[in-house]
Design brief:
- The protein has helices spanning about 30-45, 75-95, 110-115, 145-150, 155-160, 170-175, 185-195, 200-215, 220-235, 235-245; strands at about 5-10, 15-20, 50-55, 60, 100, 105, 120, 125-130, 165, 180.
- It has about 260 residues and is of the alpha/beta class.
- The protein folds into two domains: about 5-195, 2-enoyl-CoA Hydratase, Chain A, domain 1 (Alpha-Beta Complex), CATH 3.90.226; about 200-255, Lyase 2-enoyl-coa Hydratase, Chain  A, domain 2, CATH 1.10.12.
- It has a six-stranded mixed beta sheet with strand order 1-2-3-5-7-10, sandwiched between helices. The protein has a four-stranded mixed beta sheet with strand order 4-6-8-9.
- The radius of gyration is 19 Å and the shape is globular.
Length: about 260
């Protein structure tokens, strides 16, 4: 069984750690429910600026729990997929950055859990695989969409159909891994998130929303959405304080944003 450990390793950083070493942090029904509830609570918590998602041991997440597969009724399977969909949608819709710190293998739904996050950090030994076809299944948790958006449709189809394994360096080259952290992985991931947590939270949330919608519609649509976001942000206290600091040669990196 996998459990969800929740802690606050730094100001503004809320960490969710999957802990199920025996199953490589597989997503069983119980932990899926815990993750959905935790994400929904984070959305309403103003003290949380960044969500950090990671795993325990040699795995980030091995995907679905194979022990529950092969015997489910169609109704039970639908329930499982609904939980997975709720996780994907909760991360995508959360107006706060979600950083996946992939400490080891990320397979199947575990890969898609990383892909739906806003930023992927990887340990040098991390690897990624769409393993569904190997189990006689099709991808879920948005894998067909997310991987295609990340690396292009033809590369994605090849990866989905062959089950190709990507290294952390492959991920950087293909563009879905932001950085490979070669030092103390947990500490460096927290440090990365702590930098994000010091930035203006309303601006971060709207930037995520705009980026997630960027592929929808036309350039004109994107420009319209950007104009609306800028109109809102230009009226915030955070923006006004940043302008004042800039004009008075202040250190923008040292500015304490309030989310107001």
């Amino acid at each position: 069984m996998t459990t969800l450990e929740v802690d606050r390793p730094g100001p503004g950083v809320l960490r969710f750690r999957l802990n199920g070493v025996a199953t490589l942090n597989a997503l069983d029904d119980e932990v899926k429910g815990q993750l959905v509830d935790a994400l929904r609570a984070a959305a309403l918590d103003r003290t949380t600026r960044v969500v950090l998602l990671t795993g325990t041991g040699r795995a980030f997440c091995a995907g679905g729990d194979v022990r529950g597969m092969g015997t489910r009724s169609p109704t039970e399977t639908n329930d499982v997929l609904t939980f997975g969909r709720q996780i994907t949608e909760a991360i995508a819709h959360l107006q706060k950055p979600v950083v996946a710190a992939v400490n080891g293998l990320a397979s199947g739904a575990g890969f898609n859990l990383a892909l739906v996050s806003d930023i992927i950090l990887a340990a040098p030994t991390a690897w990624f695989q769409q393993s569904f076809v190997r189990m006689g299944l099709a991808p879920d948790m948005g894998g067909t969409y997310l991987l295609g958006q990340a690396i292009g449709p033809h590369r994605a189809k090849a990866a989905l159909m062959t089950g190709r394994r990507f290294s952390a360096d492959d991920g950087v080259e293909l563009g879905f891994v932001a950085e490979v952290l070669s030092g103390n992985f947990d500490d460096e991931a927290v440090a990365y998130c702590s930098v994000l947590a010091r930035k203006a939270p309303i601006a971060l949330g709207l930037t995520k929303l705009l980026a997630n919608r960027a592929h929808e519609g036309t350039l004109a649509d994107a420009l319209d959405r950007e104009s609306l976001a800028q109109a809102l942000l230009s009226a915030t206290t955070d923006h006004k304080r940043a302008v004042d600091a800039f004009l008075n040669n202040g250190d923008l990196d040292a500015l304490e944003f309030k989310g107001e």
